[in-house]
Amino acid sequence: MLKSLHLQNLTVFPDAEFLFGKNLNVILGENGSGKSHVLKAAYCAIAVSAQGRKDGSSDPPTKGFLATALATKLSRVFMPDALGRLASRRQGRATCHCSYSFAPESLNLGFSFSTASTKEVVVDKLPTSWAPMRPVFLPTRELLTISPGFVSLYETTYLPFEETWRDTCLLLGAPLARGPRLAAIKQLLQPLEQAMGGKVELDKAGRFYLNVASGSMEMHLVAEGLRKLATLARLIATGSLLGKGYLFWDEPESNLNPRIIKTVAKTILQLAKSGIQVFIATHSLFLMRELHILQQQRFQELDTRCFGLHLTGDGTVSVKQGKTMDAVGSIAALDEDLEQADRYIDTEMGLPLTADGSEPENPSED
């Protein structure tokens, strides 16, 4: 479990500490406030740690490996022109520090780099063990339709795509999980397959299909909202989202209608309850309300944290955090939804509005 993340001079964050919940973490903010940057900073460290274990080696992490691997991962996920451009330049030749606290503490990690850094970071805190599972990162775009051949093309040709796409495509192509985990997998898959009206299949050529009552449908012909559900279903079926893992999801509500968002919200909470530590970035009031309703009704035991990212006058970002939405301060994107609802009700009631659609300060009485 990732307990905390401390960012100093990373992109828009001059000094920000995130104290994460065990189960669900929701990051709220305007466009440009750094929501995705928080997800990526957390993801990169865990992905590199999990990568170090993949060869089955029992050797502990080394500074030499991490110095290069972290710099490479940050560059391929954030995609700056150079690693040093991720360090804030507002104070001249600044140094960026990133510190990660985990349970167990053997995973704790810290590193730094300057605006002049290119291919390596300086490892300030060396973990003594590797992360046990690969994290999962879901971008705003679904990936099932590009998955066939994408990994091999990415490895041999320069493609201007974040490496999270490649990482997730690797997990999508993994074999289905077997053995005693099947019961838990079926329980998580049931509401997703009901919403999709079928099951996800992978053919020998690496192409995905949705197997519905009338037959198999090419994933390209499936509505994009259902493709996002299918992506989630496939990752659950392979065991990538099972046990003590991590899910980072950037704007889960993107391109989804409210009915599907309700299914996504339920699945997020079910995954969090099953042991996956979930991190989502959003500015959807509908998703936030649905998560709140479901948590109050069925998932009260979950340890949840909410984070509000607020742009300041100098272009940096401050963070407000707590266990509920009430603690994150005013988020303009959410406030606009609320204000529109009020204006809509006033319009239906025949109340007078000004030219910009707002209520007049002293409306005349009929």
Structural account:
A hairpin with a 5-residue loop joins strand 8 (198-202) and strand 9. The strands form 3 sheets. Strands 7-11-12-3-13-14 form a 6-stranded mixed sheet, sandwiched between helices. A 5-stranded antiparallel sheet has the order 2-1-4-5-6, covered by helices on one side. The protein has helices at residues 35-53, 63-78, 150-156, 163-172, 182-196, 224-237, 258-274, 285-297, 332-348; strands spanning 2-8, 16-19, 24-29, 95-102, 109-114, 122-125, 136-138, 198-202, 208-212, 215-218, 246-250, 277-282, 304-311, 317-322. The protein has 366 residues and is an alpha/beta fold. Helix 1 (35-53) crosses helix 2 (63-78) and helix 5 (182-196) runs antiparallel to helix 6 (224-237).
